[in-house]
Amino acid sequence: MITAILSAQRNMQQAGIRRLLVLSGERGWCLSQADAIAAALGEDVLWMSPDPARPQAVPPARARTLLGSERQHAVFDATQGLDAEALAALAGCLAAGSWLLLLVPPWDRWPHQPDSDSLRWSEQPQPIATPHFVTRLCGLLENDAETLIWRQHHPFTLPGWATRPAWQPPDGQPTAGQRLLLAQLQQADRGIWVVTATRGRGKSALAGMLAASLPGRCLLTAPSRDAAETLSRWAGDPLPFMAPDALLAACRNRPPAQDGWLLIDEAAAIPAPLLHQLIHFFPRVLLTTTVQGYEGTGRGFLLKFCADLPGWHDLRLTQPVRWAEHDPLEALLEEALLMSDSPLPATAPAAHYRLTTLPQTAWTGQPALLAAFYGLLSAAHYRTSPLDLRRLLDAPGQQMLAACDRDQQQVYGALWLVEEGGLSEALAHEVWAGRRRPRGSLIAQSLAAHGGQWQAPVLHSRRISRIAVTPGQRRQGLGRRLVEEALARARADGIDFLSVSFGFTEPLWAFWQQCGFCLARIGSQREASSGCYAAMALLPVSPAGEALARQAAQRLSRDWPWLAARVALPLPQENSTPQALDEEDWRELAGFAFAHRPLEASLGALQRLLLLPALPLPVLRAHLQQGQAVASLCAHFALPGRKALLLRCRQETAAALAALDPLACRHWQAWAAAHAET
Fold it and tell me: Residue 240 class from Cβ within 10 Å (0-12 exposed, 13-18 middle, 19+ buried)?
């Protein structure tokens, strides 16, 4: 077995390709075989495993640290769970001639075995089995002629692969594609240049070549120094490197020289607001990023970030550099994780599609439909990644609605909803109080924990996770038609409200308004990936849902005078509602004073409390009314840090409530603690 693997590896090196070897069996057997194969390969084999008994292994959660690096051979331990994003990232850093060993449970048991990775995406308290994803993956592996599968207690033979043409590895000179782009960059005197490519196309090497041709005139930043390893190696002489936040601080203190380049490697992994600020300090900027879906924000880099740049230059690399064309490992993972860009259908008249519900059981039997549905979501949303594919296939409570042709081969519109709510009143109260945060019900729980609508998780709701239509159907009403159908089905199923969370832009908000949604909450911090403020909106279905939406809208309107100071959004809000303390304010203030509600969630009620001049509240006034920084407040009031400052704010609030109305204070204090022992 090992002799055959070593022989195949030499042929793979000559052909410039990589392959997958699957070891399926009991965990101990898999580990033993992998150790023997790794020792025989004689290379520095990289292990990826969450097992603390293997301290040298990279945990799947740290797969992003491999970005920009290159390794020879790797072992991925999936015997207890398969992190698809980590698997793809690990494969992306393997050089030509590499084996990727995938360790999985016994073949027949695998589809029915709980997967520990499901805790990240299933919103369930315990790991669940993932039969749809695993069954589909097993079928692809069994039918892939380039993949080896070694099953415990089964004979193993190496297939007779056809001889591939010899591969010419990079010789240190630019490829034809790199040479063309390098010439453009060397002639540039100003501008923002963006190089995007899938893994292994030489984009970081291209940036390094540019630095090598301009000695002393390039500054480098990246998510980490390790992420820029390939770029630095191609640059030759060590490049000045600064972390993005440190570089921004330095630029603000002393603007950089105006004759050099700023090189930003793996730019999609850096928060968009920070990137926007950085690039304005430099006349010439080169950003490189990987756009395959497993890196999460890569697609958003083109959809959201680059679209807002004035006069940016879009550069692409397509030819593989680190391995040969038609690499078996790359082809297999692209199909298994649906990472390649799917062609979208042309415009179809409205009469030529129909709306249909897609159950999860359809995915294994209709792979083309899955590829079309998921491909449309990937093309439209910057956050779509293999984690979403796993959730789509196996997580409980998923609802999929598609606008398909009559043969269900083309998808013109896709709507993905997730069931939320149904918590007990006691648990919902604990969520509001900040003492519990069970898995799932993201928007319903956020409305309780941050918006003050404590009863939101009790109601039954559906969250719109994704919505997309093909370019030919945009502004034709198909998006609204999908939402209308979801509303009709929610009404028939006794759902209380639909919800959606989105990065706030005026066009997006205009769409949700047209669909009947009302704004319920806006976050005070920009999202790192999109640079937009997170907004939540509700579409009521039942009377209880209508009451919830009305309360959330009223609270947002009352709080807007103070929220507007932190959120730069052109939202006209009616501020005619009285600012005297009402029952909801008493509840909110008691939650802050006597429970664990965060200050940001209680901001409006605290500001209304500060409108009462008879109350001293020195720390709260200095913090919220005068806007003094935390460090200054701690020094002035002799507090050891942020936690002590928050505790003093809670104490001041409690004292103020007791002074205002002792009876009401005791009532709401008891209410805030009512379910503390649950």
Answer: exposed
Whether the Cβ atoms of residue 423 and residue 455 lie closer than 8 Å to each other: no
Separation CA 258–CA 423 (nearest Å): 58
- Three-class SS state of 398: strand
Which stretches of the chain drop beneath a pLDDT of 70? 68, 292-304, 341-351, 382-383, 528-531, 570-578, 675-678
Runs of H (alpha helix) within 328-477: 328-336, 362-365, 367-380, 386-394, 425-433, 442-449
Specify the pTM.
0.85
pLDDT attached to residue 672:
93
The whole-number pLDDT of residue 573 equals 60
Cα(671)–Cα(10) distance, rounded to whole angstroms? 71
Residue recorded with tokens 């066009």: 507
Helix-helix angle 386-394:84-92, to 10 degrees: 150
**Tokens linked to 129:** 């089995």
Q: What is the pLDDT of residue 297?
A: 45
The sign of the dihedral angle between the CA atoms of 102, 105, 109, 115 is: negative
Q: Which two tokens stand for residue 587?
A: 């509840």
pLDDT at 294: 46
Closest by CA to 534, choosing from 450, 461, 459, 648, is: 450
The answer to whether 115 touches 428, Cβ cutoff 8 Å, is no
Q: Residue 567's pLDDT is what?
A: 80
DSSP 258-279: TTSEEEETTGGGS-HHHHHHHH
| Residue 284 DSSP class | E
Residue 389 structure tokens: 């594919």
> 476-525, pLDDT tens digit by residue?
899 999 999 999 999 999 999 999 998 888 888 999 999 999 999 998 87
The encoded tokens of residue 187 equal 């002639």
CA 614 to CA 620: how far, in whole Å? 14
- Sign, CA dihedral 383-386-387-390, equals positive
Distance CA 305, CA 255 (A): 23
